[in-house]
């Protein structure tokens, strides 16, 4: 399906709330406005579209966002004033480490690993042995290339081995890392011979893409050893939303960001405990300390070539950029939430 530039805003779409409206609409975004809320069932399989999105957009993510495709965390007023997006993104990883107790030197499965920013951090800074999985083959390629570059840059004067070992791992700092193209919903079967052998499962802003959340928690339980940790950061809808809040704020996010229905934080706790995991951290709602990400992102995407690219990708590309406004609106209204949490087997 292809978007048209002159598609009108639906007559019944309410105006954006006053607090957010002055910053969320620009000439560029108005030019490409598109109706929201088409059900995923009317389009091709959601997972194929997610894979296609990351195959096509990951070069842009790297150029605009850097190696981490997740929010930044600005915990204090001082941080909000001083910390760059890149520093804040690493601080989100540090927060997850603190609440989960994922330890140095462990064997980690990074589920929905993007272009490997977190996997590399855990390998190089904590000496972990990290397997990153992503549905996007393009991301595997990019993550592998970035890892080789980092390994080479870290020891320019020495003889650096950047070829993989027998299990496909590349040495990085004190640890090592490898990337595999895999639909995470198949990880239970794929890692069957590794059942009970991972010290940690890490999942940052990926589970909201998965259609079957309960399956993920069951699989995490399968691959973790006794005492192993699950560290999780994700996007949520608020508890008890009115229909109107859901339609105005959450629906366009689900639609544009290629998400099956969003869950609440307590939904995840229930899935996890039903799977036999114990809560050890959170849920810690950090919405107010991450929302700045979308102020930065919105200014970053005011770039005509990016909108032209999105437009060339048809309806999904435009809906994706349009969802940025909904993210800001959802955070401002409190209907859209961000939280971290940790579990133990
Ligand atoms: C927002 S990015 C987060 C990337 C990374 N975790 C980070 O924090 O930088 C979402 C990731 O989830 C992955 N993903 C989505 N659905 C997936 C699936 N079914 N199986 C594996 N990966 C998936 C995407 O390929 C992408 O890498």
TrEMBL record:
Gene3D superfamilies xrefs: Vaccinia Virus protein VP39 (3.40.50.150)
Chain segments carrying region SAM motif I: 108-117
Record-level GO BP terms: methylation
One Pfam family linked to the record: Methyltransf_11
Region SAM motif III, residue ranges: 223-232
CDD domains named in the record: AdoMet_MTases
Keywords for this protein: Methyltransferase, S-adenosyl-L-methionine, Transferase
Domain Methyltransferase type: 109-231
Renumbered residue ranges of the record's region Disordered: 1-27
Any one GO MF annotation of this record: S-adenosylmethionine-dependent methyltransferase activity
Alphabetized PROSITE patterns for the sequence: SAM_GTMT
UniProt xrefs under PANTHER family: GERANYL DIPHOSPHATE 2-C-METHYLTRANSFERASE (PTHR44068:SF11), ZGC:194242 (PTHR44068)
Similarity-based family: Belongs to the class I-like SAM-binding methyltransferase superfamily. gTMT family.
Entry protein name: S-adenosyl-L-methionine-dependent methyltransferase
């Amino acid at each position: 399906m292809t978007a048209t530039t002159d598609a009108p805003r639906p007559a019944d779409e309410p105006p954006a709330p006053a607090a957010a409206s002055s910053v969320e609409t620009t000439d560029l975004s108005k030019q490409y406005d598109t109706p929201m809320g088409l059900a995923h069932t009317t389009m091709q399989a959601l997972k194929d579209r997610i894979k296609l999105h990351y195959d096509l957009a990951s070069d842009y993510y790297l150029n605009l966002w850097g190696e981490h495709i997740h929010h930044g965390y600005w915990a204090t007023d001082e941080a909000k004033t001083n910390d760059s997006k890149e520093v804040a993104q690493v601080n989100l990883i540090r927060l997850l480490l603190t609440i989960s107790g994922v330890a140095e030197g462990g064997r980690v499965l990074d589920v929905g690993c993007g272009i490997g920013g977190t996997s590399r951090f855990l390998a190089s800074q904590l000496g972990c042995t990290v397997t990153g999985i992503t549905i996007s083959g393009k991301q595997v390629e990019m993550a592998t290339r970035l890892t080789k570059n980092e390994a080479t840059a870290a020891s320019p004067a020495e003889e650096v081995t950047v070829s993989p070992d027998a299990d496909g791992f590349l040495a990085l700092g004190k640890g090592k890392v490898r990337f595999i193209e895999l639909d995470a919903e198949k990880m239970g079967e794929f890692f069957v011979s590794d059942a009970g052998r991972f010290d940690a499962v890490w999942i940052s802003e990926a589970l909201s893409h998965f259609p079957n959340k309960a399956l993920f928690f069951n699989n995490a339980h399968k691959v973790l050893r006794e005492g192993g940790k699950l560290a999780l950061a994700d996007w949520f809808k608020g508890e008890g939303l009115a229909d109107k809040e859901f339609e105005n704020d959450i629906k366009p996010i689900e639609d544009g960001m290629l998400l099956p229905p969003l869950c609440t934080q307590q939904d995840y706790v229930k899935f996890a405990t039903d799977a036999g995991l114990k809560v050890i951290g959170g849920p810690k709602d950090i919405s107010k300390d991450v929302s700045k990400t979308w102020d930065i992102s919105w200014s970053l995407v005011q770039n005509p070539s990016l909108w032209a690219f999105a437009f060339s990708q048809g309806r999904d590309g435009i809906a994706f950029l349009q969802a940025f406004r909904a993210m800001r609106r959802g955070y401002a209204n409190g209907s859209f939430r961000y939280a971290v949490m940790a579990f133990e087997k």
